[in-house]
Amino acid sequence: LEPYPDWSGYQTLSFDIYSPLDTSFSIRNRIEDFTHDGSLLDRFNRTLHLNPGENHFAIAISDITLAPQSREMDMLEIAAIHFFGVDLRQYDTLYFDNIRLQ
Fold this sequence. Notes:
Blueprint: E1 12-19, E2 25-33, E3 44-50, E4 53-60, H1 61-65, E5 78-85, E6 95-101
Antiparallel strand pairs: 1-4, 1-6, 2-3, 2-5
């Protein structure tokens, strides 16, 4: 997902994910700025635990800003948001909605 790059005036990134599956599982959320060097320690990473049905998430912008190990993320230049599954036993569709900065 290619987001609007300037997140500097916001406090929270929030979004909803609907899972049609009847079991809980996890996906990962990754956020990077334009100066991201490609390493795991130079971006925001969070595991999101999904339950069947509707799931709401809110992430503090300060958590994203302070995520890179050796620097602060440039909240004026956010480049990408990724959501991906790891070790999933089946493939299915997830529904993302209401992705917003507050």
